[in-house]
Specification:
- The protein is an alpha/beta fold and 457 residues long.
- The protein has three domains: 6-93, no CATH class; 97-258, no CATH class; 282-448, no CATH class.
- It contains 19 helices and eleven strands.
- The chain has helices spanning 29-41, 53-64, 80-92, 98-110, 115-125, 129-146, 151-155, 162-167, 170-180, 184-193, 234-253, 261-281, 317-320, 326-344, 365-376, 393-406, 410-420, 426-433, 444-454; strands at 6-10, 24-28, 149-150, 181-182, 216-218, 228-230, 286-287, 297-299, 306-311, 352-357, 388-391.
């Protein structure tokens, strides 16, 4: 789908006359990724078949009508929030703008505090972060124009920029392909490794998609196809080339019974990324080594102080699709280790307490608060007046943009949020309350453009 978030088509299919309403039907990125996974899982390199537009429409209808056990919950059920979380993640992960995600991770790896992480990345993956992003973006451009990726064409380019010349050499492109490609047979093995259990109906469209990790498919066929690769879900190639570096390095650093050194180092990087956003927005704060409570950041307000704790919490795919008790365990960790163990213990009277997570938390904060509050009430020293907010990384970036454009403070935003009982996540609330439409958060797009412009130097 190249750079489209969704495409409009009209369904015309003799086997599905009930869908012929002459109205537009959306083919979405997440739908395409699911169909691509299904095609690879059921494909054969020994025979050829034709996948027409009609097959595509039929597959999209199946995708949009797949129901799970949570579809049958009473809306008033205490578990109803799980349906929103399960449904939101597959859709909204593909609606993220390429430049924003690339810009975010460029800013993280740019930080002085990221020197160790950059060294570990090159040691673990064989390429620097900037090299991976550059090769990934060049591959994206080639695939968008030619429908496939050719290593020889990429290496034998005619671009005169010095940085591109240093990146697009055979050794580095081959390493990139080694990291981000797989064969159809290995893809099928990876797809079988995670199957959701303990559910009444299968979670086919929510299960782990190997395209998130290996978005390029290579073939063992002879001739030209042996030298070419395809990207069935092009957005996944871009995402994997930036945020995917974090997960690749995490996996490479993970050892049996050992502490993940890359994870520990990146936790500090994320903390300083949040502080960098505060600096760029002009927010005065006391960092962890300068405030008595040892918070990651303390922002003094006119009436209420804002306490900020940063946690590199990434929700597992099992938790996102509410398989088994994975989501409950994730929420338990947030409640006891992070919110109670950090924010509650360091609270001040009437303080605003923010837990900022590196994850994108779609439809999460207000929906899980009642669950977390029940867990907090089990603690002997629980303070009923304690208020907290769980902020995903995109929420924070959007809030920083609203603050800069509308000259409002964190205190004003979260005081208003608590007073109006909005059933919205913080980023959406801030844009609506202060009438500030944010399509591209400040700083991220600029960093992305600065990076690509630097190739010309």
């Amino acid at each position: 789908m190249k750079n489209f978030v969704r495409k409009k088509v009209i369904i015309k299919h003799p086997l599905f006359p009930e869908f012929e309403t002459n109205e537009w039907f959306l083919i979405t990125r997440d739908g395409n990724a699911f169909i691509a996974k299904s095609l690879i899982n059921n494909s054969s390199e020994l025979s050829q078949g034709q996948f027409t537009d009609q097959h595509h429409y039929r597959a999209m209808i199946m995708h949009h009508n797949m129901e799970t056990d949570l579809n049958y919950l009473d809306p008033k059920s205490p578990d109803a929030y799980k349906w929103l979380i399960r449904t939101a993640y597959p859709q909204f992960r593909y609606e993220r703008t390429y430049g924003d995600i690339v810009g975010r991770y460029l800013m993280m790896f740019d930080l002085p505090e990221a020197e160790e992480v950059n060294e570990m990345c090159q040691e673990l993956l064989g390429l620097t972060f900037n090299e991976i992003v550059t090769i990934g973006l060049c591959s994206f451009g080639q695939i968008s124009d030619n429908r496939c990726m050719s290593v020889s064409a990429l290496v034998n380019h005619t671009i005169s920029y010095d940085w591109i010349k240093r990146c697009l050499v055979k050794e580095k492109v081959d390493r990139f392909v080694e990291l981000y490609s797989t064969t159809p047979s290995d893809f099928r093995v990876a797809a079988r490794e995670w199957k959701a259990k303990n559910t009444i109906l299968p979670l086919q469209k929510y299960e782990f998609n190997p395209l998130w990790s290996t978005p390029l498919i290579r073939f063992s066929l002879v001739g030209d196809m042996k030298k070419r690769l395809i990207a069935p879900s092009v957005p996944d190639l871009v995402y994997a080339s930036c945020e995917g570096v974090y997960f690749k390095a995490m996996d490479a650093s993970r050892g049996a019974g050992k502490q993940n050194e890359f994870s520990n180092a990146f936790g500090k990087v994320f903390e300083h990324y949040v502080l960098k956003l505060l600096d760029l927005t002009g927010i005065k704060y006391q960092p962890g080594d300068q405030n008595e409570k040892k918070l990651d950041a303390l922002v003094e307000g006119k009436m209420r102080n804002v306490h900020i704790e940063c946690k590199k919490n990434i929700m597992s795919n099992e938790a996102r699709v509410c398989a088994g008790d994975a989501l409950e365990r994730y929420i338990e960790r947030l409640a006891i280790e992070n919110i109670y163990g950090q924010l509650h213990k360091k609270r001040e009277p009437d303080s605003i307490n923010l837990l900022v997570c590196m994850d994108d938390l779609f439809f999460f904060d207000e929906r899980v608060k009642p669950v977390i509050k029940e867990k907090l009430k089990e603690q002997d020293d629980y303070d009923p007046s304690f208020k907290f907010h769980i902020i995903g990384i995109t929420d924070l970036e959007v809030i920083m943009t609203v603050m800069k454009r509308k000259k409002v403070t964190l205190e004003e935003i979260f005081t208003a949020k608590e007073e109006e009982a909005y059933y919205q996540d913080a980023g959406i609330f801030a844009t609506e309350k202060f009438e500030c439409k944010v399509t591209e958060p400040e700083y991220l797009r600029k960093r992305y453009c600065d990076f690509t412009d630097s190739w010309k130097k």
